[in-house]
Amino acid sequence: MLRNTPQGWELAVIEPERESESNQKAGVTDKKRPKQVLALPKGLVDPGEKPEQTAIREVREETGITARVLAKLLDIKYVYVRTWGDQQRVFKIVSFYLLRYESGEIDVIAPEMRIEVKQALWIPLEGAERTLTYRGERDTIRKAREYLQTHPEEASQR
How far is Cα 79 from Cα 89, in angstroms, rounded to an integer? Predict the structure, then answer.
């Protein structure tokens, strides 16, 4: 999710609430202080929902921002092992869309979302690939830049 400001393009990102931080709040201590994780908003497609609608909803829920879809950027496929319950391997496909800011204030989200999102914030698009934690999301930022370069009409709008 991008917005164009007088200082340049900015990207809305989230710092997910992590299990170790929840444990610390509950009084369980962990000697290691984990590095801050910054990620793009994402989530599951609800029944009857199209992926584009999911992207808009998840950005609104996780950042407080209302946005519109400009383009689909890419699909990322990966496998992870659940850290809870059955420790099962899960195959996942995440579709990323380029969204453009329409309204709202960053990090003004529902209290129930705080179990998922520690904070939402704007970061400069310039250098964002060095800031985001996950490789696939860094690829997504490169695709967003390519889109902006090939669609100069978007860059001229504020």
Answer: 7
pLDDT by residue (tens digit) across 8-26? 999 999 999 976 444 444 4
Reported CATH class of domain 2-156: alpha beta
Return the SS3 of 36. coil
pTM of the predicted model as reported, rounded to 2 decimal places: 0.84
Residue the block writes with tokens 């999102």? 117
Which residue has tokens 């960053």? 106
Beta-carbon-side half-sphere exposure of residue 83 (alpha carbons within 13 Å): 3
Q: What are phi and psi of 154, to 5 degrees?
A: -70, -40
Q: What is the rounded distance in angstroms from the CA atom of residue 97 to the CA atom of residue 5?
A: 20
| Whole-angstrom distance, CA of residue 158 vs CA of residue 155 | 8
3-state helix, strand, coil in the chain (%, to 5): 30, 35, 35
Type of residue found at 98: L
Per-residue exposure over 20-35, b if at least 16 CB sit within 10 Å of its own CB, e if not: eeeeeeeeeeeeeeee
